Automatic annotation (TrEMBL):
It holds the Pfam family DUF3253. It comes from the Bacteria. Transmembrane segments: none annotated. This is DUF3253 domain-containing protein. It comes from Hoeflea phototrophica (strain DSM 17068 / NCIMB 14078 / DFL-43).
């Protein structure tokens, strides 16, 4: 458990946003993160704990992408509609990827 998490409580949306931005800012330009990295940074290495954060992280990522703060990538390309993508994805800072998948 990290300083981000209180026992028995999931991190709030602001903590999830902060974890995503912190990890992305530590990457070289053009590089992305897996959303599970943000989950692990908050919940620790135990898969039972960090997996519980995957849906909330996805929701926050969609909000951030819609606001232009980050981009959601599939197969290295920005998704055209953050609200309707499916499958495995990565997160990147804006302008860190190829044109949108349609």
């Amino acid at each position: 458990m990290t300083s981000f998490q209180t026992p028995g409580q999931a991190p709030n949306a602001e903590r999830l946003r902060s974890a995503i931005i912190t990890l992305l800012s530590q990457r070289q330009p053009g590089k992305s993160i897996c959303p599970s990295e943000a989950a692990r940074s908050l919940a620790g290495p135990d898969e039972k704990n960090w997996r519980l954060l995957m849906k909330p992280i996805r929701q926050v990522a969609v909000e951030m992408a819609t606001a232009g703060q980050i981009q959601i990538l599939r197969k290295g390309k920005r998704v055209a509609d953050p609200d309707s993508f499916r499958g495995v994805y990565r997160l990147a800072l804006p302008d860190a990827c190829k044109p949108a998948n349609r």
